[in-house]
Write a structure and sequence with these properties.
By secondary structure, the chain is an all-alpha fold. It contains three helices and no strands.
C-alpha cells in the first residue's frame, strides 16, 4: 500500500534516523515508545494535512489515531480529500 509506505518512510526519516523503513512494523506503538512526542505529533499532523489534504481542523481526533503507522494510514485514508494522493 503506497499510502502506508509513504507515511512509514516519513516517520522513519523524521523520528528514527538510521532505521530502515522496513524495520518499522505497521502496528508499532509510536507514542508509548516515545518515537513520536507530543510536539512531534503536532508536526506530523501538519505534514499529513499538507501532504494528503486531510482537514484535521474539522475532525475529532485522539492520540489513538496516531498510535501506529497502521492507525495513521487508516485515519488518512478515511478522511483524505478526493483530490489527495
Amino acid at each position: 500500500m503506497r499510502l502506508q509506505r509513504e507515511i512509514t518512510e516519513h516517520i522513519v526519516a523524521e523520528y528514527l534516523p538510521g532505521t530502515a523503513a522496513e524495520e518499522l512494523e505497521a502496528d508499532y506503538d509510536l507514542l508509548a515508545t516515545g518515537v513520536v512526542t507530543s510536539l512531534q505529533l503536532i508536526r506530523l499532523i501538519g505534514w499529513l494535512g499538507d501532504r494528503y489534504d486531510v482537514p484535521f481542523g474539522d475532525l475529532e481526533i485522539s492520540p489513538d489515531d496516531f498510535r501506529s503507522v497502521a492507525s495513521i494510514t487508516e485515519l488518512v485514508a478515511r478522511h483524505q480529500e478526493p483530490s489527495g494522493v
